[in-house]
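Action item from last meeting closed. Structure (115 res):
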């Protein structure tokens, strides 16, 4: 699977939904974990503002990478953000999208965005 690094240095990222445990299987309630570290995975929603436009994105972050002090509307910085295009077929219908994953999310903005 292709992994694309995402540069957020000129973007503003704001929290629109606080982190929640990511569920791997909704029928069983199985929680998603990182296959390498076995850390629980969390999902939060952000508005990504750059180049005169904005998009809502969901970002998966290991539980240990969730910084303290996250509140609704807080500006955040993402460490190690990557995008992974995906596609699948479910019930005879083709679906596709982009999954976002970061190593950590912290309150504040990157040094590049500040200066």
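Sequence:
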């Amino acid at each position: 699977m292709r992994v694309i690094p995402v540069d957020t240095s000129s973007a503003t990222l704001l929290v629109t939904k606080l982190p929640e445990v990511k569920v791997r299987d909704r029928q069983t309630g199985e929680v998603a974990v990182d296959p390498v570290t076995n850390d629980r995975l969390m999902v939060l929603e952000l508005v990504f503002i750059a180049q005169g436009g904005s998009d809502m994105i969901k970002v998966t972050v290991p539980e240990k990478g969730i910084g303290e002090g996250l509140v609704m509307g807080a500006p955040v910085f993402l460490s190690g953000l990557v995008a992974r295009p995906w596609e699948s077929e479910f019930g005879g219908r083709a679906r596709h999208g982009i999954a976002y994953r970061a190593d950590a999310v912290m309150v504040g903005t990157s040094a590049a965005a500040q200066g």
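Note appended to the action item: Strands lie at 4-5, 12-21, 23-25, 30-31, 41-50, 53-62, 76-79, 82-90, 93-101, 104-107.
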